[in-house]
């Protein structure tokens, strides 16, 4: 999510429906899905086609799969039966018992109690709610009935396990959160004949000064804090969706944030991160809960050095214009003023009186109106003194500040400063997504080259935009730029008149006379590209930039749609260059080009296949591409024949190698072996 880059995409067939959330098996690193209620699918990252993945048809409908880090996946069926995945796969058609009768499952959760997995789920029948607690490996099952609440019913549930006690939290329709304690130690005994009624206690009223929160989703953060997603209903105002954090120990609203684009009503929490749908995007918000204190809960912390900060929550992932840091690794002291920004106004004197405690984000905001000289000097100081754990995040903020100033002031562009930062630090695209966009706008080809060579997470759309920009730029203009040509200088020789020196080419298994009858069409005389692939179709600088594109990581599924939009003439030029590289690689016994960051044979072949897949119809229709495709076909066919001949004598060569090992090294002899 931090890289904003799709890593994989799998689809079921038309007409099939995924009927429960997909989970990851932590032990085997596999994905587990269920479609059409009964069909189980298991696959790994490298699997491309979901239809060819492992398939098992079960005997009963699945409600949900829960994956535990140390307990393996648990499968909960709609009838209340539970199986571990291992047991289920031994006999997929095994009969699954119906634990519930006429009830509908409303929620389920799974936990580890020591080495034993525990599954808890709630059901509803005729307005009554029930709680089931199961230990699948011990075949233990216990059923409870929830105490009824007049004029209110449960909307959602969440739970956590502490000291062999399940704490079940219920968000009710009367805008209150109730707590129910369920001890586990008694579940080792025999089941009781009569179901036990669970009593509940009021934990929290979701109202502050007459404003009521109509909650839709509830998650537990720690023993003293919960998060509720819902709508704030204020008298004479439209309801506003927001995310709120509550201190259950002191019954206070800790902080809140409006979500003006709307949500799906669902909130997830995992490893101190919130996940929610805000508008059309998935938003991730970092948080950290620390020791709760009354002073922090009511916003009366006087000493900024007090370690008991009740909550740090970084809301700034929701703000487009904010420069405040979007990472959690800052020291808590430095971010205390920001953590309560929605409850109390920040004191402007903090930055002046206590400069040592100013956050990175606040410092960047203070520099927003500074002169260019002061601005850049302060940023250099900030990077120089940033602690090692926070260095990358700090540099990301610095790059964001620089690109924001570039967008506000079109005349400002610190080319050398940006190149220096990218060249000297191990960065990624996600740290500053606007950097490459600004570089493309300014036509800063050297900086784009650095980013393509160094960033591991560039989106395919940006890679395509860079490729199109490189191919469209004139050779004359590129010669004026300081492009790094280390990746091409060792295999492209340039004469003083900027024409390539002709070198003798001896391809692996390719004969210039071979297959001459395949195509008699000649390239136009004005073309600089020869049919034998000897001449490089692009200049030194453009070749270096295209090599940077070849080094960029991509996912084929997401790159192909963009490559289809590449103009035909640019596609042909790029294919000519790839063919040239392919021939160059084939000259070498180890198929490796000399130079620093030179493309590999696999990268060249992959991009050639991508380009042909996306542009094949265009290539076939264009007359100027006919001989290029013909020559490429002849060369590849010659390569296939050559390696096919090598494969035929592979057994004989291995036998020779075995005989050499058997001979005595001291004996001198001359032997003639005939290979039939």
Automatic annotation (TrEMBL):
The keyword rRNA processing applies. It is found in: Nucleus, Nucleolus. The keyword Membrane does not apply. One of its GO terms (molecular function) is RNA binding. Residues 1-288 form the Nucleolar protein 11 N-terminal domain. GO terms for biological process: maturation of SSU-rRNA. It holds the Pfam family Nol11_C. Keywords: Activator, Nucleus, rRNA processing, Transcription, Transcription regulation. Residues 366-674 form the Nucleolar protein 11 C-terminal domain. GO terms for cellular component: nucleolus. This is NOL11 protein. It comes from Pycnonotus jocosus.
